[in-house]
Design brief:
By secondary structure, the chain is of the alpha/beta class. Helix content is about 35%, strand content about 25%. It has a 6-stranded mixed sheet, sandwiched between helices. Helix 3 packs across helix 4 and helix 4 crosses helix 6. It binds adenosine-5'-triphosphate. This is Phosphate ABC transporter ATP-binding protein.
């Protein structure tokens, strides 16, 4: 079941460097939220705090609150591994395990979580996950071939299948199409629109047309200068952000005047 994420007064650090300051935003369930903004404003950094991937970097930490359906993800006793299981992530470059078979790639996250699974259940999970990522018809006859035998766009859909196989509630996508050709990009965008029936989706994108095409809400981040923290400038329905943003900086960015 898709869940909502509420962020309140979040400051994000790399050691002493305050990379992103004072973010408060609500991310609605069963919707696609796009993060846009110029390079270095902290979109990826902020995205990684939503499933506690940020703290994997030595010295990296946060102040403030990130809650999923009211539960503080940084609360005492919360297991970061469980957080990452319920909030999955898809990266910029498709990163299937190259020598592992297509089927085993889908199951990799499940196996990592030490879940025992019967052969029949594994087959069902492979099929449902690949159907969920719109890849089943293309690979059903070659599930034992290595992940690296697929095209870039297929590999990215394989990674999405791997992410949804662990049944997350939220999917974070960090520029998932930036390494893909236009056709594969459209396939992933169609898939994102379908996935929001079941998941809450957050996508970082440099492509404004993509944000306009796939997202329901858009959050614009900006940075006033190098060495200064990135900040969330405004967030609203995507149609509003692209037609009548409140802030001039948003309008300038969207209309290509900077960034
Ligand atoms: N591992 C890290 N260690 C230290 N500083 C980092 C690290 N990763 C990112 N930063 C810094 O944090 C700030 C935000 O970077 P981030 O990659 O989140 O921005 P971004 O908006 O996603 O950029 P881009 O659009 O170029 O991917 C930058 O100043 C960057 O140099």
């Amino acid at each position: 079941m898709a869940k909502r994420i509420d962020v309140k007064d979040l400051n994000i650090y790399y050691s002493d460097f305050l990379a992103v300051a004072d973010v408060s935003v609500d991310i609605e369930p069963n919707s696609v939220t796009a993060f846009i903004g110029p390079s270095g404003c902290g979109k990826s950094t902020f995205l990684r705090t939503l499933n506690r991937m940020h703290e994997v970097i030595p010295g990296a930490r946060v102040e403030g609150k990130v809650a999923m359906d009211g539960v503080d993800l940084y609360g005492e006793g919360v297991d970061p591994v469980a957080v990452r299981r319920s909030i999955g992530m898809v990266f910029q470059r498709p990163n299937p395990f190259p020598t592992m078979s297509i089927a085993e790639n889908v199951l990799a996250g499940v196996r990592l979580n030490n879940r025992r699974i019967s052969k029949g259940d594994a087959q069902d999970l492979v099929e449902s996950s690949l159907r969920g990522s719109n890849l089943w018809n293309e690979v059903k006859d070659r599930l034992t071939r290595p992940g690296s035998s697929l095209s870039g766009g297929q590999q990215q859909r394989l990674c999405i299948a791997r992410a949804i196989a662990v049944r997350p509630q939220v999917l974070l996508m960090d520029e998932p199409c930036s390494a893909l050709d236009p056709i594969s990009t459209l396939a992933i965008e169609d898939l994102i629109s379908e996935l929001k029936d079941n998941y809450t989706i957050v996508i970082v994108t440099h492509n404004m047309q993509q944000a306009a095409r796939v997202s329901d809400r858009t959050a614009f981040f900006n940075i006033a200068g190098s060495g200064l923290p990135g900040r969330l400038i405004e967030v609203d329905a995507t149609s509003t952000m692209f037609s009548s943003p409140r802030e001039k900086a948003t309008e300038d960015y969207i209309s290509g005047r900077f960034g």
